[in-house]
Amino acid sequence: MSRIRLLSETVASQVAAGEVVERPASVVKELVENSIDAGARKIDVIVRRGGMSIIRVIDDGCGMDRDDALLSLERHATSKIRSAADLESVATLGFRGEAVPSIASVTRFRLTTREAGAIAGTEILVNGGKLDVVRDSGEAPGTQVEARSIFYNMPARRKFLRSENTESRNIEHQLHLQAIGHPGIAFTFVRDERIVFQVPSAAGLLDRLRDLYGAEFIERLLEVKQEGAANIRVRGFTGKAGVSRQTRDQQLVFVNGRAVENVVLNTGLREGYHTALMKGQHPVTFLFVDLDPGGVDVNVHPAKREVRFREPKAVREAIVQAITRTLESDRSDWQAQFRAAPLAAPTDLPSPRPTSSTTQPGGATSVSSPTFAPAPTPRELPQLETEFSLRGERAVEVRTRAPFTPNESPVTPRTSHRQDFQIIGVLNKLYVLMESVAGLVLVDQHAAHERILFEELRRRMEEQGVPSQRLLLPQTFDLPPRDAEWVERNIATLQKMGIGIEGFGPNTFKIDSLPSFVAAPDAVAFMQGVIDELKSASNSASPLRLGEDMIAKTVCRHAVKANDPLRHPELEKLIQDLLECDLPYCCPHGRPTMIQISHAELEKKFGRKV
What we know:
It is built from 17 helices and 28 strands. The chain is an alpha+beta fold.
């Protein structure tokens, strides 16, 4: 007897529905996407009990006649593609023709629709996939879809639904995605007879983000201007350096207007931020990637959440360049705050005068319990000098010149009369207080010095190469075929990074030296980590990216610490060097180097402004 049987039409429809309809938020997503494809300019979503009782989506789109309305309930009936070739260039949000029949098979379904100018519309009632009623209706032009009692005929699936509040939050998240992806459409979300949010049609993405998140949130974003290759364009908004979250909840990326998830996009964002982002943190982004529909495959996931790119490296490079360019432009604006107008040089800046001091070897002076006194002249102050050397595992060496004595030549004062900032003092022997044209600025002297040392050492390593340390005993190791092929193509890059590696047979390699500043007890495990890191790195990234984690740890040990007293010229030099850095507003670990409090914020704190 045959063990293979055809499933009944009812069971088959419910199996297919399980791929598309996972929860009430899936229903809202599919119906709203249909409304957008229909050219709607206003979409209302009404739910009760988290969508488990009722979901109603109303739009003012093109509507349908009776024949099209009936065909929309048939599986794989769609107006968006005609042949298999059309799958290679899908330009709409929906295209499979599965959403409406899938929703109708697991709910008590009602569809009313009318074309503009038609005398009457059409109303269709479906229960669990079975057509009940077809009749005329007098609804407004557009389409209204109502889905009641989701999974009423699939009790096992209904048990997996979460609480009403959780399901409502998921629906709200889906509507936020659609509202951000299509700012020209007005959205209203009503939950249990209460308006949760209502946003009008916006002129652009910035206005839509302001409507959803508020003006204060917008101030923390940078505009990613639409630039890039002819076939890949990146635009949108991204958080400033240091603006991040522990989850990807606000890391939103849209490909041709569709909110998607893709590892290529996540990698590009991470690479673009690089040291401007702390480990374990994720950037806040609202990024739009526009490319030829033929260059992206959206027919991968049943719910269309994931996509594949025909040229993933090109997409990643476009995102990396866009983010890097945006952060660099913010650096120019950030520096302009200090150089917008000259500030008068302080004439009576307080300087810490030690009440007790001890002389240490090398002439350095340890200061404790400072009191404020009139600022000494430049002749009395030491200068901060930083020197670098690569000696074994000590990659950075910081030395401070001893204070000036009468037997030495006096320090030549600065000839420039223009002061970009004014140092007010030091708080808690760590935070430098400064006045700029924009307001009050607090600088973390340790984080600032870390950034200065990090960029200087990285620059010298890139120019001069990485010194290597030979291993006492060379080691051999095997790699999977794909990793072995990658190593063979990049042996020259690895050798420039101070890694002595060469082929030693099929898929086998020998390593006889490592970078001198790398302390790796297991060279093979270290090499495997290198391969994984560099394979995911951008093509435009520094070939010495591998060593940056080690550099960051090294400079952290040698940078100025909290409670290290610095005099006024030292602080000036520190701030000037920081302003010249490529990424001055955060340390190599992604922590901020500066915090600014604007004049407006100060006036608000003191009640001068509302």
